[in-house]
Design a protein that fits this description.
2 copies of one chain form a homodimer. With about 250 residues, chain A is of the alpha+beta class. Chain A folds into 2 domains: about 160 residues, Jelly Rolls (Sandwich); about 80 residues, Arc Repressor Mutant, subunit A. Chain A is built from 7 helices and 12 strands. In chain A, the strands form 3 sheets. In chain A, strands 1-2-9-4-7 form a 5-stranded antiparallel β-sheet. In chain A, strands 3-8-5-6 form a 4-stranded antiparallel β-sheet. The first copy, chain A, has a 3-stranded antiparallel β-sheet with strand order 10-12-11. In chain A, a hairpin with a 2-residue loop joins strand 11 and strand 12. Chain A is globular, with a radius of gyration of 19 Å. The interface between A and B is large, with 37 and 37 residues. Chain A binds a DNA duplex (30 and 30 nucleotides) through helix 6.
Chain lengths: ~250, ~250
DNA sequence: CGGAGAATTGATATGTCTCAACACTTGTGG
DNA sequence: CCACAAGTGTTGAGACATATCAATTCTCCG
């Protein structure tokens, strides 16, 4: 039911990291605005320095949390490598997956209007994320160099993502939900330049089920069913989509 | 199945309306930044003029659309009076309600990172909305007077709302979904200074069902069930919550 | 190799959908 | 003002999909 590897969740301090200070920790690395713009696929303009290493990176090992529910807001995070899942834990202890994030995705957007994160983001595989200190931009009232606008643009993109996820999870039948989930994954991979027809899922059937509001057994059966229909080929977490058209047209 | 009153959907032109031009239409009215800040319950700072009438209002009669799916983005809208619903229409023609919005809520947030609205927002009752021309702020590269930041803050709040809606619609049992929906409505009313325990729903059972991914019959049965349990009292769209605690604790 | 979690598959239980009938509400026009 | 129509809401019976419980195999990792 629970993930034992989560027990080792580490916290971090949120010292200002907008610019490298005199004492740069040996294990830290920094990203440039240029890299951030590229990862976000942002097409707007930034007048700030593009090639200075000003955005701190952070590694998260599989199973570890980036931030916890209720934790003080410490900025957005941009996924550089790896795969994360974001969950809400209800009072009764039940976990609910609300998003899977990969390269170029934003984490923590729901904390930007609050002072706390509303959910927990944790790594499915070893990850590297870039901290985007929107909280510092916000509180320091910095000059308008286009960076803040880019960060808010990224947040508004998150609204679209959540909306799309909502639509996927609301399809009538479980097999259709699973089909649309696979399409979402496929498109996400394609957008990053990877194969749209062949990929390995980083999450368990239970996670997929939680995301789609169905049980893990139903996810498994749906995948087997789509497999038998020759629309996809499933081997554990390896997915091969034989016909994206059939998958998109699939309505049960 | 469909709403006949929607047929009369009117379109409007999106001429720049940031400042009143020489030809102010007789039927138009304008809101001040002060009013917008108050409606949004925004606590940040704006250095712009607070009491100039710069934000155009627009009336929408019950059943009419504010914007349609795929329509070119023309800014955010802030609800001043009335009640709206936002729907996605799928290729097959099925409608899916993704949000109900009332006073102080933002519409069109998903269009801010695109050039088009992704969904349709239409009035459940006669409404008045205020246009927030974030598109013009964005394209004109305006000075940093705090207004743009406020608009993006409003968008980030939308991420939280969508997330909350997601959690509500993902509860295991239909009665729990309906219970949580009522709690959401109650809290929304309370936040606006209205009664948390007594209110009239502006939407049909079908709309509620679409929002919660259940059928209208199931919504009706759930309400009847909660009524019989003495937790609430239902008479058509009039809701009286006898015990908010029991409603929150209700798990089937 | 052994153990724990992950995944598949089956049998049964249960909740929701579907189809249907009926009562209530609202708005319109004679 | 009433009759009527169309939409809204409630309730019931049966069909169907998914959840639940259970057994087995697979996979990964120490």
């Amino acid at each position: 039911m629970t993930y034992p590897s989560l027990l080792g969740t580490e916290r971090m301090s949120y010292a200002p990291t907008l610019l490298p200070t005199r004492h740069v920790p040996l294990d830290s690395e920094w990203s440039t605005l240029s890299e951030v713009v590229q990862l976000l696929q942002y097409e707007g303009h930034c007048s700030a320095e593009m090639h200075e290493p000003v955005f701190r990176r952070r590694r998260i090992r599989a199973g570890q949390s980036l931030f916890l529910m209720g934790q003080e807001f410490g900025g957005l995070y941009l996924v550089r490598h790896g795969c994360m899942k974001t969950v809400i834990t209800h009072a009764e202890g039940t976990e609910h997956v609300i998003a899977f994030s990969m390269q170029g995705d934003i984490l923590g957007a729901e904390g930007a209007c609050q002072h706390h994160y509303w959910c927990e983001s944790l790594a499915l595989k070893d990850c590297e994320v870039i901290r985007l200190p929107i909280d510092e931009y916000f509180s320091h009232g910095r000059a308008s160099d286009g960076v803040e606008r880019m960060l808010y643009w990224a947040i508004s993109r998150e609204v679209c993502r959540r909306q799309a996820a909502y639509a996927i999870a609301h399809a009538a039948k479980s097999e259709v939900r699973v089909a649309r989930f696979l399409i979402e994954q496929s498109e996400h991979h394609a957008a990053l330049g990877y194969s749209a027809s062949q990929f390995t899922l980083p999450m368990t059937r239970r996670d997929i089920g939680s995301y789609l509001s169905i049980t893990l057994e139903t996810v498994s059966r749906a995948l087997s069913s789509l497999n038998q229909l020759q629309i996809i080929e499933v081997a554990n977490r390896d997915i091969l989509i034989h016909s994206l058209e059939e998958l998109q047209a699939y309505e049960g």
